[in-house]
Amino acid sequence: MTELEPKPPLSVDSMLQRASSWISAGKEVAEVLVQAGRKPGPLSVVGVGLAVLDAVREARTMDADSYFRAQALVKLPVWGLAAFLHRSLKGVGSQERPSNVEGLAVRIVTLGAFTYAFDLGENGYAWGPYIPRDQDAEKSRSHLARAIWEKFECRPLRLASMPSPHGSGRETTLEVDRDEELLDSGRARALANRMGSRLGAVPSASVLLAGTPGSGKSSEMRWVASKIGGLQLRIPAEMVYLDKTWISIIRLLRPSTLLVDDIDRVGRGLASCLTELEELKSIVKLFMASANSRSAMTQAALRPGRFDEIHIIDTIDDEVLTKLLGEDNDDAPLRARLAALPVAYVAEYVTRRKFLPKAEAIAELEELEARSKAIAAEIAAADEEEDDEEPDHDDD
Which superfamily does CATH assign the domain made up of 186-312 to? Predict the structure, then answer.
Protein backbone atom coordinates (compact mmCIF):
# COMPACT_ATOMS: atom_id res chain seq x y z
CA MET A 1 0.00 0.00 0.00
CA THR A 2 1.43 3.36 -0.99
CA GLU A 3 1.39 6.14 1.54
CA LEU A 4 -0.82 9.07 0.77
CA GLU A 5 1.11 12.25 0.03
CA PRO A 6 0.48 15.00 2.59
CA LYS A 7 -1.72 17.79 1.43
CA PRO A 8 0.24 20.95 0.55
CA PRO A 9 -0.05 23.60 3.28
CA LEU A 10 -2.50 26.41 2.70
CA SER A 11 -1.20 29.97 2.74
CA VAL A 12 -3.16 32.75 4.39
CA ASP A 13 -4.06 34.09 0.96
CA SER A 14 -5.40 30.71 -0.15
CA MET A 15 -7.47 30.50 3.05
CA LEU A 16 -9.02 33.87 2.31
CA GLN A 17 -9.67 32.73 -1.27
CA ARG A 18 -11.42 29.68 0.16
CA ALA A 19 -13.58 31.93 2.31
CA SER A 20 -14.43 33.96 -0.80
CA SER A 21 -15.35 30.76 -2.66
CA TRP A 22 -17.73 29.82 0.21
CA ILE A 23 -19.42 33.19 -0.14
CA SER A 24 -19.77 32.66 -3.90
CA ALA A 25 -21.12 29.17 -3.26
CA GLY A 26 -23.68 30.59 -0.84
CA LYS A 27 -24.90 33.04 -3.46
CA GLU A 28 -25.21 30.26 -6.05
CA VAL A 29 -27.18 28.04 -3.61
CA ALA A 30 -29.56 30.91 -2.92
CA GLU A 31 -30.01 31.64 -6.66
CA VAL A 32 -30.72 27.94 -7.44
CA LEU A 33 -33.29 27.72 -4.66
CA VAL A 34 -35.01 30.90 -5.85
CA GLN A 35 -35.10 29.70 -9.48
CA ALA A 36 -36.58 26.39 -8.29
CA GLY A 37 -39.36 28.33 -6.66
CA ARG A 38 -38.13 27.70 -3.21
CA LYS A 39 -36.90 30.23 -0.73
CA PRO A 40 -33.50 29.56 0.86
CA GLY A 41 -34.22 27.87 4.14
CA PRO A 42 -32.64 29.07 7.38
CA LEU A 43 -30.56 25.94 7.69
CA SER A 44 -28.94 26.33 4.28
CA VAL A 45 -28.17 30.00 4.94
CA VAL A 46 -26.79 29.22 8.40
CA GLY A 47 -24.70 26.37 7.00
CA VAL A 48 -23.12 28.55 4.36
CA GLY A 49 -22.61 31.34 6.90
CA LEU A 50 -20.87 29.04 9.37
CA ALA A 51 -18.59 27.70 6.68
CA VAL A 52 -17.66 31.26 5.69
CA LEU A 53 -17.00 32.23 9.31
CA ASP A 54 -14.86 29.12 9.88
CA ALA A 55 -12.76 29.83 6.82
CA VAL A 56 -12.24 33.48 7.76
CA ARG A 57 -11.47 32.59 11.39
CA GLU A 58 -8.96 29.96 10.28
CA ALA A 59 -7.25 32.49 8.03
CA ARG A 60 -7.22 35.28 10.57
CA THR A 61 -6.36 33.46 13.81
CA MET A 62 -3.84 30.63 14.09
CA ASP A 63 -0.86 29.66 16.17
CA ALA A 64 2.71 30.20 14.98
CA ASP A 65 3.28 26.61 13.84
CA SER A 66 0.12 26.67 11.74
CA TYR A 67 1.11 30.01 10.25
CA PHE A 68 4.57 28.81 9.28
CA ARG A 69 3.14 25.60 7.81
CA ALA A 70 0.60 27.65 5.86
CA GLN A 71 3.41 29.79 4.46
CA ALA A 72 5.47 26.69 3.57
CA LEU A 73 8.18 27.65 6.08
CA VAL A 74 10.34 25.09 7.89
CA LYS A 75 12.65 25.50 10.88
CA LEU A 76 16.34 26.05 10.16
CA PRO A 77 18.38 23.65 12.35
CA VAL A 78 20.59 25.99 14.39
CA TRP A 79 20.23 24.60 17.91
CA GLY A 80 19.51 27.11 20.66
CA LEU A 81 20.31 30.22 18.60
CA ALA A 82 16.86 31.71 17.94
CA ALA A 83 17.12 34.56 20.46
CA PHE A 84 20.78 35.13 19.55
CA LEU A 85 20.02 35.38 15.82
CA HIS A 86 16.90 37.48 16.36
CA ARG A 87 18.99 40.02 18.29
CA SER A 88 21.98 39.87 15.92
CA LEU A 89 19.84 40.53 12.84
CA LYS A 90 18.21 43.69 14.19
CA GLY A 91 18.71 46.49 11.70
CA VAL A 92 19.91 44.10 8.99
CA GLY A 93 18.22 43.66 5.60
CA SER A 94 14.53 44.27 4.95
CA GLN A 95 12.28 43.63 7.95
CA GLU A 96 8.51 43.39 8.31
CA ARG A 97 5.79 42.09 10.59
CA PRO A 98 2.77 40.71 8.72
CA SER A 99 -0.48 42.09 10.11
CA ASN A 100 -2.95 39.81 8.32
CA VAL A 101 -3.03 37.35 11.24
CA GLU A 102 -4.48 38.42 14.57
CA GLY A 103 -2.66 37.68 17.81
CA LEU A 104 0.50 36.45 16.10
CA ALA A 105 3.86 38.20 16.45
CA VAL A 106 5.99 37.21 13.48
CA ARG A 107 9.13 39.01 12.29
CA ILE A 108 10.33 38.38 8.75
CA VAL A 109 13.88 39.33 7.75
CA THR A 110 14.83 39.38 4.06
CA LEU A 111 18.53 39.34 3.21
CA GLY A 112 18.92 39.48 -0.54
CA ALA A 113 17.39 36.28 -1.90
CA PHE A 114 17.11 34.71 1.57
CA THR A 115 14.16 34.93 3.97
CA TYR A 116 14.14 34.21 7.72
CA ALA A 117 11.06 34.30 9.95
CA PHE A 118 10.88 34.40 13.76
CA ASP A 119 8.01 33.69 16.12
CA LEU A 120 8.26 36.30 18.89
CA GLY A 121 5.90 34.50 21.25
CA GLU A 122 3.71 36.07 23.91
CA ASN A 123 6.53 37.84 25.76
CA GLY A 124 8.64 38.70 22.74
CA TYR A 125 11.03 35.77 23.18
CA ALA A 126 12.15 34.59 19.74
CA TRP A 127 11.71 31.12 18.29
CA GLY A 128 13.06 29.98 14.94
CA PRO A 129 14.35 30.95 12.51
CA TYR A 130 12.10 29.53 9.81
CA ILE A 131 12.97 29.54 6.12
CA PRO A 132 11.00 28.79 2.93
CA ARG A 133 10.76 25.08 2.25
CA ASP A 134 12.65 25.43 -1.05
CA GLN A 135 15.47 27.56 0.48
CA ASP A 136 18.71 25.58 0.92
CA ALA A 137 19.47 25.14 4.64
CA GLU A 138 23.29 25.14 4.38
CA LYS A 139 23.33 28.21 2.14
CA SER A 140 20.88 29.86 4.56
CA ARG A 141 23.27 29.29 7.47
CA SER A 142 26.24 30.64 5.50
CA HIS A 143 24.26 33.70 4.44
CA LEU A 144 23.20 34.34 8.04
CA ALA A 145 26.82 34.22 9.23
CA ARG A 146 27.98 36.57 6.48
CA ALA A 147 25.22 39.05 7.29
CA ILE A 148 26.19 39.07 10.99
CA TRP A 149 29.90 39.62 10.28
CA GLU A 150 29.07 42.38 7.79
CA LYS A 151 26.81 44.06 10.34
CA PHE A 152 29.89 44.45 12.58
CA GLU A 153 32.11 45.34 9.60
CA CYS A 154 34.10 42.12 10.14
CA ARG A 155 35.75 43.60 13.23
CA PRO A 156 37.00 41.36 16.08
CA LEU A 157 33.98 40.27 18.13
CA ARG A 158 33.39 38.81 21.56
CA LEU A 159 30.55 36.82 23.04
CA ALA A 160 28.95 38.43 26.07
CA SER A 161 26.18 37.53 28.50
CA MET A 162 23.37 39.97 29.20
CA PRO A 163 20.27 39.86 31.44
CA SER A 164 17.33 38.47 29.51
CA PRO A 165 14.80 41.20 28.63
CA HIS A 166 12.06 38.56 28.92
CA GLY A 167 12.41 37.69 32.58
CA SER A 168 14.93 35.71 34.62
CA GLY A 169 18.11 34.24 33.24
CA ARG A 170 20.69 35.56 30.81
CA GLU A 171 21.09 35.58 27.04
CA THR A 172 24.13 35.46 24.78
CA THR A 173 24.92 38.43 22.59
CA LEU A 174 27.67 39.64 20.25
CA GLU A 175 29.60 42.85 20.65
CA VAL A 176 32.68 44.42 19.11
CA ASP A 177 35.77 43.48 21.11
CA ARG A 178 37.47 46.24 23.06
CA ASP A 179 39.70 48.45 20.97
CA GLU A 180 43.07 48.90 22.64
CA GLU A 181 46.66 49.30 21.57
CA LEU A 182 48.37 45.94 21.17
CA LEU A 183 52.09 46.27 21.84
CA ASP A 184 54.48 44.47 19.54
CA SER A 185 57.06 42.25 21.24
CA GLY A 186 59.75 39.78 20.32
CA ARG A 187 57.86 36.99 22.07
CA ALA A 188 54.62 37.76 20.23
CA ARG A 189 56.40 38.02 16.87
CA ALA A 190 58.06 34.66 17.44
CA LEU A 191 54.72 33.05 18.28
CA ALA A 192 53.00 34.64 15.26
CA ASN A 193 55.77 33.40 12.95
CA ARG A 194 55.57 29.92 14.44
CA MET A 195 51.77 29.75 14.08
CA GLY A 196 52.02 31.11 10.53
CA SER A 197 54.52 28.40 9.62
CA ARG A 198 52.36 25.71 11.22
CA LEU A 199 49.24 26.90 9.40
CA GLY A 200 51.18 26.82 6.16
CA ALA A 201 51.67 23.10 6.64
CA VAL A 202 48.44 21.97 8.36
CA PRO A 203 44.80 23.17 8.16
CA SER A 204 44.49 24.25 11.82
CA ALA A 205 46.51 24.94 14.96
CA SER A 206 45.83 25.27 18.69
CA VAL A 207 48.03 26.79 21.37
CA LEU A 208 47.75 27.31 25.13
CA LEU A 209 49.60 30.21 26.78
CA ALA A 210 50.04 29.38 30.45
CA GLY A 211 51.69 31.39 33.17
CA THR A 212 51.32 33.85 36.02
CA PRO A 213 48.46 36.40 35.94
CA GLY A 214 49.34 39.70 34.32
CA SER A 215 52.24 38.43 32.22
CA GLY A 216 50.60 39.62 28.99
CA LYS A 217 49.12 36.35 27.71
CA SER A 218 45.81 37.82 26.52
CA SER A 219 47.50 40.76 24.80
CA GLU A 220 49.89 38.44 23.01
CA MET A 221 47.02 36.21 21.86
CA ARG A 222 45.19 39.17 20.37
CA TRP A 223 48.36 40.51 18.72
CA VAL A 224 49.08 37.12 17.14
CA ALA A 225 45.45 36.85 15.97
CA SER A 226 45.69 40.30 14.35
CA LYS A 227 48.76 39.18 12.41
CA ILE A 228 47.29 35.85 11.32
CA GLY A 229 44.26 37.78 10.03
CA GLY A 230 40.73 36.67 9.21
CA LEU A 231 37.55 36.80 11.27
CA GLN A 232 38.23 36.84 15.01
CA LEU A 233 35.99 35.87 17.92
CA ARG A 234 36.78 35.88 21.67
CA ILE A 235 34.85 33.95 24.31
CA PRO A 236 34.95 34.31 28.11
CA ALA A 237 35.99 31.05 29.76
CA GLU A 238 32.86 30.89 31.95
CA MET A 239 30.67 30.76 28.84
CA VAL A 240 32.45 27.62 27.63
CA TYR A 241 31.18 25.75 30.66
CA LEU A 242 27.94 27.54 31.56
CA ASP A 243 26.45 28.32 28.15
CA LYS A 244 26.47 25.41 25.72
CA THR A 245 25.21 27.61 22.87
CA TRP A 246 28.79 28.83 22.30
CA ILE A 247 29.70 25.84 20.14
CA SER A 248 26.54 26.35 18.05
CA ILE A 249 27.58 29.98 17.53
CA ILE A 250 31.07 28.84 16.45
CA ARG A 251 29.55 26.35 14.01
CA LEU A 252 27.45 29.14 12.53
CA LEU A 253 29.93 32.04 12.44
CA ARG A 254 33.03 29.91 11.65
CA PRO A 255 35.65 32.50 12.69
CA SER A 256 39.21 32.12 11.45
CA THR A 257 40.62 32.63 14.97
CA LEU A 258 39.00 31.78 18.30
CA LEU A 259 40.39 33.16 21.57
CA VAL A 260 39.45 31.98 25.08
CA ASP A 261 40.82 33.95 28.04
CA ASP A 262 41.64 32.23 31.35
CA ILE A 263 40.30 28.84 30.34
CA ASP A 264 41.50 27.45 33.69
CA ARG A 265 38.58 29.27 35.35
CA VAL A 266 36.39 26.47 34.08
CA GLY A 267 38.43 24.14 36.32
CA ARG A 268 37.37 20.51 36.34
CA GLY A 269 34.24 21.49 34.46
CA LEU A 270 36.43 21.61 31.37
CA ALA A 271 36.16 17.82 31.24
CA SER A 272 32.55 18.17 30.06
CA CYS A 273 33.65 20.39 27.15
CA LEU A 274 36.42 18.23 25.69
CA THR A 275 34.28 17.02 22.79
CA GLU A 276 33.51 20.60 21.78
CA LEU A 277 37.17 21.63 22.16
CA GLU A 278 38.17 18.73 19.92
CA GLU A 279 35.59 19.80 17.33
CA LEU A 280 37.13 23.28 17.11
CA LYS A 281 40.00 21.87 15.07
CA SER A 282 37.60 21.15 12.24
CA ILE A 283 35.95 24.59 12.42
CA VAL A 284 38.49 27.33 13.17
CA LYS A 285 41.88 27.92 11.66
CA LEU A 286 43.61 28.99 14.91
CA PHE A 287 42.43 28.30 18.44
CA MET A 288 44.30 30.11 21.24
CA ALA A 289 43.62 29.96 24.98
CA SER A 290 45.29 31.38 28.05
CA ALA A 291 45.50 29.89 31.56
CA ASN A 292 46.85 31.24 34.82
CA SER A 293 47.07 27.81 36.45
CA ARG A 294 47.56 24.60 34.54
CA SER A 295 47.01 22.63 37.75
CA ALA A 296 43.41 23.89 37.84
CA MET A 297 42.73 22.31 34.45
CA THR A 298 41.73 18.71 33.99
CA GLN A 299 44.65 16.60 32.80
CA ALA A 300 42.54 15.37 29.88
CA ALA A 301 42.61 18.93 28.50
CA LEU A 302 46.41 19.00 28.69
CA ARG A 303 47.21 15.63 27.19
CA PRO A 304 49.29 15.60 23.97
CA GLY A 305 47.14 16.41 20.97
CA ARG A 306 44.52 18.47 22.81
CA PHE A 307 46.61 21.60 22.29
CA ASP A 308 49.24 21.43 19.56
CA GLU A 309 51.56 23.61 21.62
CA ILE A 310 51.79 24.86 25.21
CA HIS A 311 53.91 27.95 25.91
CA ILE A 312 54.87 29.09 29.42
CA ILE A 313 54.74 32.88 29.94
CA ASP A 314 55.64 34.00 33.44
CA THR A 315 57.05 37.50 32.94
CA ILE A 316 56.28 40.62 30.96
CA ASP A 317 58.07 40.77 27.61
CA ASP A 318 61.24 42.87 27.78
CA GLU A 319 60.37 44.89 24.66
CA VAL A 320 56.91 45.67 26.01
CA LEU A 321 58.37 46.86 29.31
CA THR A 322 60.82 49.11 27.45
CA LYS A 323 58.01 50.70 25.43
CA LEU A 324 55.87 51.23 28.52
CA LEU A 325 58.57 52.78 30.73
CA GLY A 326 59.84 55.31 28.23
CA GLU A 327 62.21 57.77 29.94
CA ASP A 328 62.28 55.70 33.15
CA ASN A 329 64.15 52.85 31.41
CA ASP A 330 67.43 54.28 32.72
CA ASP A 331 66.38 53.48 36.31
CA ALA A 332 67.69 49.91 36.51
CA PRO A 333 66.32 49.10 40.02
CA LEU A 334 62.85 50.35 39.04
CA ARG A 335 62.94 48.41 35.79
CA ALA A 336 63.94 45.21 37.58
CA ARG A 337 61.17 45.71 40.14
CA LEU A 338 58.48 46.30 37.51
CA ALA A 339 59.69 43.35 35.43
CA ALA A 340 58.80 41.05 38.32
CA LEU A 341 55.27 42.46 38.67
CA PRO A 342 52.14 41.63 36.66
CA VAL A 343 51.44 43.83 33.63
CA ALA A 344 48.50 45.45 35.45
CA TYR A 345 50.89 46.99 38.01
CA VAL A 346 53.19 48.22 35.27
CA ALA A 347 50.21 49.82 33.51
CA GLU A 348 49.15 51.51 36.76
CA TYR A 349 52.63 52.92 37.24
CA VAL A 350 52.82 54.18 33.65
CA THR A 351 49.40 55.86 33.99
CA ARG A 352 50.42 57.64 37.22
CA ARG A 353 53.73 58.63 35.71
CA LYS A 354 51.89 60.74 33.13
CA PHE A 355 50.82 63.23 35.80
CA LEU A 356 53.03 62.50 38.83
CA PRO A 357 56.74 62.77 39.55
CA LYS A 358 58.53 59.42 39.57
CA ALA A 359 58.88 59.29 43.35
CA GLU A 360 55.15 59.81 43.90
CA ALA A 361 54.25 57.28 41.21
CA ILE A 362 56.50 54.69 42.91
CA ALA A 363 54.94 55.48 46.30
CA GLU A 364 51.42 54.92 44.93
CA LEU A 365 52.57 51.71 43.27
CA GLU A 366 53.83 50.46 46.65
CA GLU A 367 50.49 51.37 48.22
CA LEU A 368 48.67 49.47 45.47
CA GLU A 369 50.85 46.41 46.06
CA ALA A 370 50.20 46.51 49.81
CA ARG A 371 46.45 46.88 49.29
CA SER A 372 46.36 43.97 46.85
CA LYS A 373 48.30 41.74 49.26
CA ALA A 374 45.91 42.64 52.10
CA ILE A 375 42.89 41.78 49.96
CA ALA A 376 44.48 38.48 48.92
CA ALA A 377 45.18 37.65 52.58
CA GLU A 378 41.57 38.38 53.55
CA ILE A 379 40.29 36.13 50.78
CA ALA A 380 42.65 33.32 51.81
CA ALA A 381 41.60 33.65 55.46
CA ALA A 382 37.91 33.56 54.52
CA ASP A 383 38.45 30.44 52.40
CA GLU A 384 40.33 28.75 55.26
CA GLU A 385 37.58 29.63 57.73
CA GLU A 386 34.94 28.24 55.37
CA ASP A 387 36.91 24.99 55.08
CA ASP A 388 37.14 24.72 58.88
CA GLU A 389 33.37 25.12 59.23
CA GLU A 390 32.60 22.21 56.90
CA PRO A 391 31.42 19.21 58.96
CA ASP A 392 33.50 16.09 59.01
CA HIS A 393 31.86 13.02 57.49
CA ASP A 394 32.97 9.88 59.31
CA ASP A 395 32.84 6.65 57.42
CA ASP A 396 30.09 4.34 58.61
Answer: P-loop containing nucleotide triphosphate hydrolases (3.40.50.300)
